[in-house]
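Quick one: structure for this chain?
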Amino acid sequence: MVRLLVFLWIFLLSVQFIDGMWLNLFVSLPPNVGPMRMMYMMDYGPVFMIHIVTTFILLLVAIVLVVLSFSNQTTLVLSTIALLSIILSGIGGILFIFSGFSNNLYSFIMSLGFLFAMVSYFLVIMISSRKSGSL
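Got it. Here's what it folds into:
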């Protein structure tokens, strides 16, 4: 069950990555977005909405994976690292929006969160496939 959820999570994170790159490269976003103007961000179409919804699904699946990983300490540690990485990415994303999409440090934080989470879950797959002898 854990491996299946990890594969789902990796797929969703790949969608998140592609969607975020699309937003970064092809969508002109407003320079001044404050907390009260966040609702106007929904006017930027389905790409932005997919990015936001995928974030929450990733967070939910990561929480479920942490709960399901309590039986294996290594998987629990890796799943917790991945969860914290996703939380870090989400915070970086919110701060990036509030910076008017101009502070590249927050974008970098999102990419680091992506990388740490992806590596953590690949290690979970490797560990679990080694124990079972297959993917």
